Amino acid sequence: MLCAACDAAYWNEARLRCAVCALPLSSSRSHQGRPRGGQRHCDACLKAPPAFDATVALADYRAPLDALARGLKFRARLGLGEEFARRLARAADDALDPADAPTLIVPVPLSRERLIARGYNQAWQIAKPLARALGARADATLVRRTLHTAAQSRLDRDTRRRNVGRAFALKDGDCALRGLHIGVVDDVITSGT
Predict the structure, then answer these.
(1) Are 174 and 188 contacting, i.e. CB atoms less than 8 angstroms apart?
(2) Which of 40, 78, 117, 184 sits at a 20 to 30 Å CA gap from 19?
(3) DSSP character for 72?
(4) Are 186 and 160 in contact, with CB atoms under 8 Å apart?
């Protein structure tokens, strides 16, 4: 997908990230609390832990990798989903304790309008092969989008959180999820909402 030099420079970039939200930590902030397994956490996740336990991110959203994400999302370069899944499976194996590996993988759903316009869900194109690689079950119907919202890419961080905060619902309520460790897959993480 990339030349060897870009592949080595961007996919495998050593980056200190918060173990919960995956936001980059500066080296001056590398002293952050380590409540679990020696992992570093950002101030925000220490002060107000989110509803999820961990985030695995492949890379920062910047050139040249941002063009690959846009190719999957807007140009139907569906083979990129397999590539992202392969790399994400390796990153998950490195970042997660085997006991914390997801048993179920779900994609972030698109609204009906966006799915019809695009013809596919880019997150599902990553989630399916990722589930196979991790030996987990995949389910594209468990979470549904209840609101058609503005595109996240056009909004600032706080507006992104509010934009999707109530846009999703579980198909059968949360009782179907008890005891499962769920991995939620999206092509780009912005707010973590």
Answers:
(1) no
(2) 78
(3) H
(4) no
